[in-house]
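so i finally got all the pieces together for this one. its two components total, 848 residues if u count the protein bits. some of the lines might not be protein, just check the labels. i wanna see the whole assembly predicted at once instead of chain by chain like last time, that was a mess tbh
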Amino acid sequence: MADPAPAPLLAVERLAVDFATETGWFAAVRGVGFELARDESLAVIGESGSGKSVTAAAIMGLLDPPARILGDVRFAGESLLTMAPDRRRSLYGRELSIIFQDPLTHLNPVQPVGWQIGEVCTIHGAPRREARERALELLARVGIPDPLRRYAAYPHEFSGGQRQRIMIAMAMALRPRLLIADEPTTALDVTVQAQILELLAGLREEYGMSLLMITHDLGVAAEVAERVVVMRRGEIVEAGSLPRVFAAPRHPYTRELLTDRSEEYRSPAPAAAAPLLAVENLAIRYGAFRAVRGVSAEVGKGEILGVIGESGSGKSSLAAAMLRLRPCDGGAVRFRGQDIWALDGPGLRDYRRSVQAVFQDPFSSLNPRMTVERLIAEPWVLNPGVVPRARWRERAAELLEMVGLAPSDLDRYPGEFSGGQRQRIAIARALALEPEIVVCDEAVSALDMTIQAQVIRLLADLRGRLGLAYVFIAHDLTLVRKFVDRVVVMKAGEVVEAGPAEEVFANPRHPYTRQLIDSSPELGPKLAEWRALPDPPAPGPARGAGGPPAAGGG
Amino acid sequence: MATRLRLLRLLRSDAVALAAAACLVVVVLVALFGPMAVGDAAGGINLRNRNAPPFEFTRPWLYWLGSDSLGRSILARIVVAARTTLGIALASVAAALLVGGAVGLVAGLSRGRTGEYILRGVDVIMSFPSLLLALIVLYVLGPAPSNIVIVLGVTRLPVYVRTARAEVLEIRERAFVAAAQVMGAGPVHIALRHVLPLVLPTLLIIGALDFAYVMLAESALSFLGIGVQPPDITWGLMVAEGRAYLTAAWWLAFWPGLAIMMTALAANLLAMWFRIANDPSLRGSLKARVAGNG
């Protein structure tokens, strides 16, 4: 850090990126400047819309007109934005490379992965034979078992974590000096995420390369970075060494991000009541694949049941069965003691009214062709008699206000809202029938952390006011911990552990539960450690946000 | 009502779409009232006027676009043919769209065997040579316009069934369909309220494209003598008749060809505009363009 002589490996200087929209230029990145030294690891933290990925794309030359780029990006002293295209092409892939969030869309589905890794070498002039050897070596290095056989396999034959490993192998093929990682673990399970972060750290040590990590996850940043840059709405709000920023944040936004709000997720649990919805020995099969095997669980009035587990553990199949969206292949789901598939007439109507759902993806769970008013009123169209026709608009406005939106939003379309707002609309719709249970299938997973916190607080608050019960399905343990009363841990379609949340989290009995808890990147202990440092590291000469002060930069 | 007004206002502000709409309105008006205006000039043989070239403004206005090999006014014939052409094309496309769309919707939404059977049926239609089908049907039933509509409609049916089914399969898996089920929606509600509005724009676009195709297919049938029978005329038939004279008298095929092209183009542009205007997430771009244009 104290080595001033050579030019920094990467210098972003007063970078501004504008996109043309119908209403003029939209400034996605405004006057962003930071430097990255050789061998250093920097995390750019920000929520969606903060401009962090656009910054990465600008560095990698992935932005095309009509995007407008101002400022400069220098790599080892040379300007990437003005250099000859030939020179730039020879740098990309060899000196700097990038890995993305979604490896499946960034790998070519019709080429074997070994060939794709070797391609990076052949593009930069290596003979085929050598490329093949290098590809095999890399596959082994990133931890793909049996590389010789898997060389000829196609991307769809790998799991998500393995695909990310393959992307990393491609990026590492020519030993770059700088690796840009754009949310590389966001789509992965926590245990896989831990492995990938470990792999990245190992590779960094081995090759001596710099890492620019773009992430929204403070835990991930704390895991890999030495310095952090916090972005918000296209501007840098804070920059500095990791312990300094995390232990003593200066900007209110950073402070907001770092505040542990999980205590606010708590709401008083009701006294034990007869189960409203019970799953008994449930089995679900997709062909020969047994997605759920012998799962039992129950929710009482006003209770919150958490279901945690990794992708493929059968959580969503369980939710679908509870919602009567797919039939059970064994066992039963009972509502007030009655099998939901035996219900008809008034019983079925009562069930449909009482059990509602909020789905993961707020972009697809709202019909894009309907106004918010029609969306919220749809349950009343389907269940006549709940709310009289004349009161629909009024009641819809009330529901919107309850979830923190304005009545004037009634005439807008879902496309005009952000992800968090759409999820609020979905919650308002779920509340329209005054249900007793809301099944939330990864209802906050797609949202930014601050929005997540808002939605969870809203749900906790609604339980207090309306006596709602939730089945809360999630893979993020930190969210579940304080919010739910009881928790069920699922793995490969089976329940491995169940019990009161506090107890399960404090004393996990099953090794899988322990593994889940250990893998989830927790800030708490590290923060305490940094805050306890006798003398917090001096906030060096404003190296991060630094460079010449930019107009509007912070 | 309010939506219709808003659509009209949007249309008025989009020059291209407005021109397309105006063009279609003119064509429809010509088809409805044109024949009365030109009287029986379309059939008036005048051998002294054979193959008169266009743009000779010394002749009566009916001959400004030239005349055909029997000396009949091309303008008058185009006007008279508009009615048959549009009638047949519209009816065939509408029939194929309605029946095909409905069948495709059912095929996409049914979880059981029905969808499979429908698809195999469609495959049969597709694999049977359409010209052969036309020959057989029109030979057996006689070349009445209604039979031509049936033949053309059946031939175009598979496109709509397959497209509708493919779109439905994708839409069916979206979360809002599951959300509607959770609210207690039955299959009819889901099909009409959630799936159809998203499938319809695609079908309308295909319909607009098919409009041109059907006009040409009908001309091919007429050329073979099993389509529209003289003295009835259609644009396609005029193109087919004029083909023999292409080198000597280009205007015989050119003017009806131009009519076909303009109508199809206008239908396409309007359908494209309609798709955007009907989609709340895309409508913004139309409005913005309007605002930008002042």
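Chain B has one domain: 2-293.
Chain B touches chain A through 26 residues (CB under 8 Å).
anyway lmk what u think
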